[in-house]
Amino acid sequence: MTPRAAIIAGFAAILALVIATDRFARRTGSGVRPLPATLTAALRSPVVRVLIFGFWLWLGWHFLAR
């Protein structure tokens, strides 16, 4: 497995974990907050907004720049 394939597989695993957690959070009686509620709470802070924007730029640079 090439390093690029391993990194893509790692990001795919993280995405699958996020989706599974969100589905678990939407069940009745779950104590976990769904992803949109978590992002809404996190994006109230300007520092978190900058960090998420930086991560988004980094992700785009690594997957789209050739």
Automatic annotation (TrEMBL):
Keyword Transmembrane: yes
Organism: Actinoplanes aureus
Entry's transmembrane regions: 44-64
Keywords: Membrane, Transmembrane, Transmembrane helix
Record's keyword annotation contains Transmembrane: yes
Xref: InterPro entries: DUF6186
Annotated protein name in UniProt: Uncharacterized protein
